[in-house]
Specification:
The complex is a heterotrimer of chains A (about 350), B (about 325) and C (about 325). By secondary structure, chain B is an alpha/beta fold. Chain B has helices at about 55-60, 90-95, 115-125, 130-145, 160-170, 190-205, 220-225, 240-245, 250-260, 265-270, 300-305, 325-329, and strands at about 5-15, 25-35, 40-45, 70-75, 75-80, 95-100, 180, 210-215, 225-230, 235-240, 310-315, 320. Chain B has 12 helices and 12 strands. Chain B is globular and about 70 Å long. Chain C is globular. Chain C is α/β, with parallel strands linked by helices. Classes of the chains: A mainly alpha (about 350), B alpha/beta (about 325), C alpha/beta (about 325). Chains in contact: A-B, A-C, B-C.
Chain lengths: ~350, ~325, ~325
């Protein structure tokens, strides 16, 4: 009997064949550690190397553009005499004298531009502006798009039909054209408004940037609205919402407890992916000269300014260009990582 | 006054399916269905997909707006389309509940099991304070064979059978009198199905519940039901006592349905000669005229195409709708 | 040694999920002769589909074959490249899936999809392939094949689609047909039609069938051999009569007991298997079924039981059977 031979190898004792108690049996069933949806998603996100590297890059860029300028000895507006068009780590004649005299002079890491401004601080400020524009614009898109989309989906029927046709029409409006038109139309009234006390900030921001924000608020939310609408439409038909209705749960509570909470994952992902596209649009418009007002730099306008001297001072163009790519790429990769971690459709 | 606890008369539920004006098309999901259920009794409802059994249950709970018919619950009108009576549903929601088929889709993935069960308590303000609410939730979970340890967990951490228990606990939280069980065992593994059926039986005994038990598996339905109704394409074709229906089915559709069930017994399976129905279930958008079953019925005559068969009591408490009952049996 | 069409020996396969390793198949052995029908029954997640898919080289990511021999019709499946596998799939082994809705491509006509398979594996011309497609549709009991060839999947009912799937699977007269829950998504009356059709075709074409299902009723009427799977292991294997009339494993016994019967005359309480299915990420140390088993012994919780054989085909993996065998052996001495 070969099976028995095998059994004897395990050195079976008669007490092994005593019936096991219920506790012993239950001790074999291990309940997994409780994980909420967020914890589970975060765990998956942390395992995604690409996403984590992108997150580190995003944080570094944030530190570079928001915190470093506070301790930086130069200002983005400050024109240093005789320091025009310095290469990276070069000093102007005046500064060289001071160094020779034993004074410490902070180096121009990226050199200076043709007006003698330290380029490093201008790049920092430029990315700060680009990031801010990207975040604010995305915020506008998120608020308008999600409210519009969820209202259309929740009420359905005619409301939905009309609201979605409006979205279709907005899709057909050419955005660049609208920005140019708005810029010219708003220039005059805005300059007049800026003279009113309390509105002087308009001069700092510039009418261009205001029209960019306006266009974002007017046009760019439609994609978000469509996404939110389809999400809510699916969720609305889900059985747990039907179950809630059968329990007598009211509309408000259904929206708050069931629809919105289940939407948040997708909303975060879409929003993260919207940021780079907003930054891209801003950089692109600034490059065309329709972005932020001088002397405020943005990555796009920096690149645009540098294009004339590209042959002689290529670093002036490359530094903002590389930074734009880096920001956009890392936001996109991080957004993809978020989607892999939080999108319920990809989860199994 | 109705004499029965649950009384559904001429229930109709049509869903629009495209077309405008006079050419508007409808799916006749439920067409002229009548039945009653006594208190503490279970009525099983079987039929193939698209026969309207699920819609019947959901319309009764007014999860859809009924197209026609009347439903009285314990003598009170839940809806009466003819008289345009649609009273406030909220008090009824405490007395009638539903358990869903898919234990994955019917629980909100972002809520803990405790909150899922507690939602009903919140909506109907059944608990005075958080302590009482917590105690009620734990009591419900224990009732369905779960424990307090489970309350803080999320649905995806449970197996199918356990999730279905959560779904049942949610329905029980309002202490209902009547529960629509909408295919509650279809998505479960065989060894778990029996657990859930037994639990339904125990709960019925303990709480005096009345069930409308919807399923496509006739053998499971037979186990839990006192009486069984068979539906085909939106219409009820036969209704009788469970044992009587299985033993001596009158309607040709019921006969073929019973014979089509695979028997888990090789010897019986080898010798049994099944009645295998030809063809497919017609689309409910375009149901056949007269008797909807006639396109697949081996006994169909010219009369079947012309007239909708009358729903009548053939024997005592044994109803069927077929023109040729006498000839067939 | 009998020549087997399918001979799987000690297959081990794991899925490496982010949450940990799931041992989907643990020492699974299956053999099947030409023209035989094997039923694999088990609960969801027991590994019944994984076994069949691995035989076709269709193990989904993140699954990985860790060991064992998979022999099919003289091919060593585990050593074959994807390119070599493609020649076998649809030609020598075919598969039909649970959901006929999603397994047909909605943008091609039925005829297109059948002809594609025929022309992939044979040198038939377009016209010959069309003739063959018509023949196949007739074979699976579809009326007006000429008309059906030009229709798109959405124009057909569920039962009709499953017939088309069977026609595609049979296009090259495979030696083995794997049916993965072929009737689960269908209504009872349609299920009866499809099962009848499969039996007819088996008689006509003489292919072997592996029938994967959770429905004991389906295997009882169709299969000669039955493998009962639980948590990635075959815990009992035997002929249909062995399994239904002389089950030896507590799980098989419980499974058969728990089925509601149609022929009872008075109300009987069902006898379920208590407990919850195995969490495949944290399986018990010994026998996976032990925590749910009424008769579990101390040893069951510690060690996986060895195989106990009863006669030529019937075997189980259960300590209770081991105990009985040992007691029998002792009394003989």
């Amino acid at each position: 009997m070969k099976e028995n031979a095998l059994s004897f190898q395990l050195k079976l004792k008669p007490e092994d064949f005593i019936p096991a108690t219920e506790e012993e049996k239950q001790s074999q069933v291990i309940m997994r550690e409780s994980v909420s949806f967020w914890k589970d998603g975060m765990r998956r996100l942390r395992k995604n190397k690409v996403a984590m590297v992108s997150l580190v890059v995003i944080i570094l860029v944030m530190i570079f553009s928001f915190i470093v300028p506070m301790f930086y000895p130069y200002s983005y507006k400050e024109q240093i005499k005789g320091a025009n068009n310095l290469g990276p780590m070069e000093y102007s004649a005046g500064e060289q004298e001071r160094i020779d005299a034993g004074e410490k002079v902070f180096p121009h890491i990226f050199g200076t531009d043709k007006m003698g401004r330290d380029y490093a601080i201008r790049v920092m400020m430029g990315s700060r502006i680009s990031l801010l524009v990207g975040l604010i614009a995305t915020g506008i898109i998120l608020i308008i798009g999600s409210i519009y989309g969820s209202v259309a989906a929740f009420f359905g029927g005619w409301v939905d039909l009309i609201m979605m046709r409006i979205v279709d029409i907005i899709y057909t409006i050419p955005d660049i054209l609208l920005i140019v038109l708005l810029k010219f139309a708003l220039d005059d009234p805005l300059t007049r408004l800026a003279t009113v006390p309390g509105f002087s900030w308009i001069n700092v921001v510039g009418s261009n940037l205001i029209s960019i924000f306006l266009v974002f608020a007017l046009l760019y939310w439609v994609g978000m609205a469509r996404m939110v609408r389809s999400q809510i439409l699916t969720l609305k038909e889900s059985e747990y919402v039907t179950a809630a209705r059968a329990l007598g749960v009211g509309n408000g509570r259904i929206i708050k407890k069931h629809l919105l909470t289940n939407c948040i994952g997708t909303l975060i992902v879409t929003t993260t992916l919207q940021i780079p596209s907003s930054i891209f649009t801003e950089s692109f418009l600034s490059f065309l000269g329709m972005g932020v007002a001088v002397p405020l730099p943005s990555l796009g306008s920096l690149a645009s300014d540098a294009i004339n001297g590209m042959g002689t001072y290529p670093h002036l163009l490359f530094i903002p260009a590389i930074l734009i790519s880096l920001i956009i790429l890392s936001f996109n990769l991080f957004g993809d990582g978020l989607r892999d971690a939080f999108d319920p459709k990809l989860k199994n | 006054m109705s004499e029965h606890f649950i009384e559904v008369e001429h229930l109709r539920q049509y869903f629009p399916a495209g077309g405008f004006g006079s050419r508007k098309k409808y799916v006749r999901a439920v067409d002229d269905v009548s039945f009653f259920i006594n208190k503490g009794e279970t009525l099983g409802l079987v039929g193939e997909s698209g026969c309207g059994k699920t819609t019947t249950g959901r319309t009764m709970l007014r999860l859809y707006d009924p197209t026609g018919g009347k439903f009285t619950f314990d003598g009170e009108t839940v809806f009466d389309v003819d008289k345009k009576e649609f009273p406030n549903m909220l008090p009824f929601r405490k007395r009638m509940q539903i358990v869903f088929q898919d234990p994955y889709a019917s629980l909100d993935p972002r809520m803990t099991v405790g909150d899922i069960v507690g939602e009903a308590i919140d909506v109907h303000k059944l608990a005075k304070d958080d302590k009482e609410r917590y105690d009620m939730i734990i009591h419900m979970l224990e009732r369905v064979g779960l424990n307090s340890e489970h309350a803080n967990r999320y649905p995806h951490e449970f197996s199918g059978g356990q999730r279905q228990r959560v779904g049942i606990a949610r329905a029980l939280a309002v202490n209902p009198e009547f529960i629509v069980c909408d295919e509650p065992i279809s998505a479960l593994d065989v060894s778990i199905q029996a657990q859930v059926i037994n639990m339904f039986e125990d709960l019925q005994e303990q709480m005096g519940l009345t069930y409308l038990f919807i399923a496509h598996d006739l053998s499971a339905v037979k186990h839990i039901s006192n009486r069984i109704g068979v539906m085909y394409l939106g219409r009820m074709v036969e209704l009788a006592d469970s044992y009587k229906l299985i033993d001596r089915p009158l309607h040709p559709y019921t006969k073929s349905l019973i014979s089509a069930i695979p028997i888990a017994d090789p010897k019986q399976a080898r010798k049994s000669n099944r009645i295998v129905l030809e063809g497919d279930v017609p689309s409910p958008l375009n149901p056949p005229s007269g008797c909807t079953f006639r396109t697949r019925c081996p006994y169909a005559t010219a009369e079947c195409a012309e007239k909708v068969p009358e729903w009548k009591e053939i024997e005592k408490d044994h109803f069927a709708a077929c023109h040729n009952i006498d000839k067939i049996n | 040694m009998a020549e087997y069409l399918v001979d799987i020996k000690n297959e081990r396969l794991s899925f490496f999920t982010p949450a940990g390793e799931v041992k989907a198949l643990n020492d699974v052995s299956i053999h099947l002769k030409e023209g035989e029908v094997l039923g694999i029954v088990g609960e969801s997640g027991s590994g019944k589909s994984v076994t069949a898919y691995s035989l076709m080289g269709l193990t989904a990511h993140p699954g990985k074959l860790l060991g064992g021999n998979l022999n099919f019709n003289g091919h060593q499946i585990e050593n074959m490249t994807e390119k070599e596998m493609r020649k076998i799939r649809g030609n020598e082994i075919s598969i039909i899936f649970q959901d006929p809705m999603t397994s047909l491509n909605p943008v091609y006509t039925v005829g297109n999809q059948i002809m594609e398979v025929i022309r992939l594996h044979t040198d038939k011309t377009k016209q010959e392939a069309k003739e063959r497609a018509k023949e196949l549709l007739e074979l699976v009991g579809i009326n007006e094949p000429e008309k059906r060839l030009k229709q798109y999947p959405h124009e057909l009912s569920g039962g009709m689609r499953q017939r088309v799937m069977i026609a595609i699977a049979l296009a090259c007269e495979p030696k083995l047909l794997i049916a993965d829950e072929p009737t689960t998504a269908l209504d009872v009356t349609i299920q009866a039609q499809i099962l009848e059709l499969m039996m007819e075709l088996k008689e006509k074409l003489g292919m072997a069938i592996i029938m994967i299902t959770h429905d004991l009723g389906v295997v009882a009427s169709m299969c000669e051999r039955i493998a009962v799977m639980y948590a990635g292991k075959i815990i009992e294997y035997g002929t249909a009569d062995d399994i239904f009339y002389h089950p030896k494993h507590q799980y098989t016994k419980g499974l058969i007991r728990s089925i509601p019967r149609l022929d009872t005359k008075e109300h009987e309480r069902l006898i379920p298997i208590e407990g919850t299915p195995v969490d495949m990420l944290n399986p018990p140390k010994g026998c996976p079924f032990a925590p749910r088993c009424d008769e579990a012994m101390k040893i069951c919780l510690r060690e996986m039981p060895p195989v106990t054989e009863f006669g030529e085909v019937h075997y189980t993996q259960c300590w209770l059977n081991q105990k009985e065998e040992m007691e029998k052996g002792a009394s003989h001495e």
